[in-house]
Specification:
heterodimer; A: alpha/beta; Rossmann fold; 4-stranded antiparallel sheet; 10 helices; B: alpha/beta; 8-stranded mixed sheet; 12 helices; globular; transport (chain B); ATP-binding (chain B); ATP hydrolysis activity (chain B); AAA+_ATPase (chain B); Oligopeptide transport ATP-binding protein OppF (chain B)
Chain lengths: ~325, ~350
């Protein structure tokens, strides 16, 4: 394999129904390099969170990986037995969830939760683990960490709780963190602080991050590369600056145009007509074709794979024949 | 009843809604017996503290602020869902709390509300047609069932849905479509004034764009006045003519939209502007944001923003700043008043 830390190849996730199967993720492929922050952006139901869940092995049955491979370094992790997968979680891959209140145990102190996590993954005694916990809290920017470590989650504000969750995720010194909408439940002013902490911590620890969000602002602030998802497929993937400044896929162009700008005043926002198709009614050909304003005749018949252009990879027939 | 364009008011700049010194306290004391045993006093949470503003006919006034700043409480006060502790709300010159009977019903009809979560604001057991027809029945706006049906279909068409959708239930619609239904329901009472409490924050950006465009079209068509509540400053910039910035229940700055973004005066407004993510990667210069909004049960003394403010001095810690009018804007800040912080294009008076 290449120098990628995480390598996802042709991942297909299916949900069997009584007579049919719903394909929630369809041939998703991407890499994350060590220390890199990859953003996953898209509307609700595009399959962003599902990709994260598939990687860490938390797909809810009856959803399952139907085909494809997931490699973490040299280890293939999509077929691991439960026990090995359990050891992997928290140690090599950690996860940060959207709502910091539900991802912390309300009846245990922060110290209990951090020390338990640290001791599960690292051979430290109680005293050393506690010292490590205080150090982690300090690093994520919790003031007076030594005093606050014995508080319960409800005694922290939303932003502080999300810092604790980040500390918990870092406790096992993972190589990859999957952050699923880590700032969605927070205010803008707190969101900016949390993004800063996440970026700084990953930089210092050399941790790679897969940042799942629907907020283009968060992506532009935090990520190195972005994958834009639409109806279970990657529509476009590339360098964040390219995607923000020169989006190629008509869907990305619409998505970027629909965000109100604070630097310029427009009378009407760009709007993409319609809404994302349901999983049981994905149109043939390119899934975006009914909403696309640059549709070609073949878009309704053939499904485009990722085409390499000089600005990244885009799944759109408009770019066929572009010199890579 | 038909959905014609409502008569324009002779003077468009007349305030339709005037809010004066509005305050709202909530009792958050422990139960009486506990208070007696533990000899604790009653405790109050000041959700809204001496807020004044006015909204002109045909204008969009936005309230912004972090969670806990009292935005939604003000919305509920205006539509009379909760009652103010003091202060008054005048709608079209009449004090809302003092009108009774038919007059109150008419005033109340003219103010409608759109809620944040379209999954919670529509009754899942009612058909969409019945949901939209309810205000028509409640206010007696139609004489026959045929007229009700026609109005409902017209409204559905106006918000971008099909007339036959009135037979469906809310669960058959996506989030954006449900918000369209909520808008149609609000419009069915033929209001002049819509209170929109975070109408797009539960929606995806592309759907948000559709709803914002729709709201603007409807405003032009029906001459509506909006009170638009949001925490998203880029949405607010797109929608609002005037913006009020709330912090811990008090209005810290109230200025025309253009001016607020180009010449923010209050340090909190500046901080909020710095916190907007730069999604265009324009390389806008920003200062890192610090701190969080404190608890409203035990707010800081003096100016409530002083613990997070880099310009705070002893005066700020001790005394609450008064609201001072500069040009077209109102700012409550000692540092601005004493010209300790430069504000572009603003001479202190």
């Amino acid at each position: 394999m290449t120098d990628a830390l995480l390598s996802v190849r042709d991942l297909v996730v299916e949900f069997p129904k009584r007579k049919t199967r719903l394909t929630a993720l369809d041939q998703v492929s991407f890499d994350i390099r060590p220390g890199e922050i990859l953003g996953m952006v898209g509307e609700s139901g595009a399959g962003k969170s599902l990709t994260g869940a598939a990687i860490i092995g938390l797909l809810e049955p009856p959803g399952h990986i139907a085909s494809g491979e997931i490699w973490l370094g040299d280890q293939r992790i999509d077929q691991l037995p439960y026990e090995q997968l359990r050891r992997l979680r928290g140690k090599r891959i950690a996860m940060i969830f959207q709502d910091p209140l539900t991802s912390l145990n309300p009846i245990l102190t922060i110290a209990d939760q951090l020390v338990e996590t640290i001791q599960t993954h690292l051979p430290l005694n109680d005293k050393a683990a506690r010292a490590r916990a205080i150090q982690l809290l300090d690093e994520v920017g919790i003031p007076a960490a030594e005093k606050r470590i014995d508080d319960y989650p409800h005694q922290f504000s939303g932003g502080m709780r999300q810092r604790v969750v980040i500390a918990l995720a870092l406790a096992g010194e993972p190589e990859l963190i999957i952050a699923d909408e880590p700032t969605t439940a927070l205010d803008v002013s707190v969101q900016a602080q949390i993004i800063d902490v996440l970026k700084r911590m990953c930089h210092e620890h050399g941790t790679a991050v897969m940042l799942v969000t629907h907020d283009m602002g968060v992506i532009a602030e935090a990520c190195d590369r972005v994958a834009v998802m639409y109806a279970g497929r990657i529509a476009e993937i590339g360098d964040v600056r390219q995607i923000v400044k020169h989006p190629q896929h008509p869907y990305t162009q619409g998505l970027m145009g629909s965000i109100p700008s604070i630097t310029q005043q427009v009378d009407r926002l760009v709007q993409i007509p319609g809404s994302m198709p349901r999983l049981d009614a994905i149109p043939s050909g390119c899934a975006f074709n009914p909403r696309c304003n640059q549709r070609l005749p073949r878009c309704t018949q053939d499904r485009p794979d990722l085409i390499t252009t000089d600005q990244g990879h885009v799944a759109c027939w408009l770019y066929e024949g572009a010199t890579p | 009843m038909s959905l014609s364009v409502r008569q324009e008011y002779p003077d468009m700049k007349q305030p339709l809604l005037q809010v004066q010194n509005l305050s709202c306290h909530f009792d958050v004391s422990k139960p009486w017996l506990n208070r007696v045993i533990e000899s604790e006093p009653q405790r109050f949470l000041t959700a809204v503290d001496q807020v004044s503003f006015s909204v002109n006919q045909g204008e969009t006034f936005a309230l912004v602020g972090e969670s806990g700043s009292g935005k939604s409480t003000i919305a509920k006060l205006i539509v009379d869902l909760i009652h103010p502790s003091s202060g008054e709300i005048r709608f079209d010159g009449k004090i809302l709390r003092e009108t009774r009977g038919e007059a109150f019903k008419t005033l109340r009809r003219r103010i409608q509300m759109i809620f944040q979560d379209p999954f919670a604001s529509l009754n899942p057991r009612w058909r969409v047609g019945d949901i939209i027809a309810e205000p028509i029945h409640a206010f007696g706006l139609a004489t026959s069932q045929a007229q009700v049906t026609r109005t409902v279909e017209e409204l559905l068409d106006k918000v971008g849905l099909a007339g036959r959708d009135r037979h469906k239930y809310p669960h058959e619609f996506s989030g954006g479509q449900r918000q369209r239904i909520a808008i149609a329901r609000a419009l069915s009472a033929q209001p002049d004034f819509l209170v929109c409490d975070e109408p797009t924050s539960a929606l995806d950006v592309s759907v948000q764009a559709q709803i914002l465009n729709l709201m603007r079209d409807l405003q032009d068509e029906f001459g509506l006045t909006y009170l638009f509540i949001s925490h998203d400053l880029s949405v607010v910039k797109h929608m609002a003519d005037r913006i009020g910035v709330l912090y811990l229940g008090s209005m810290v700055e109230d200025a025309p939209s253009e001016q607020l973004f180009s010449q923010p005066a209050h340090p909190y407004t500046r901080m909020l502007l710095d916190a907007i993510p730069d999604h265009e990667m324009s390389g806008r210069r920003r200062k890192p944001v610090t701190g969080e909004i404190p608890s409203p049960i035990n707010p800081p003394s003096g100016c409530t923003f002083h613990p997070r403010c880099e310009y705070a001095d002893t005066l700020c810690k001790e005394q609450r700043p008064a609201v001072v009018t500069h040009n077209d804007s109102q700012v409550a800040c000692w540092a601005v008043e004493q010209a300790r912080i430069p504000v572009k294009g603003l001479q202190s008076v």
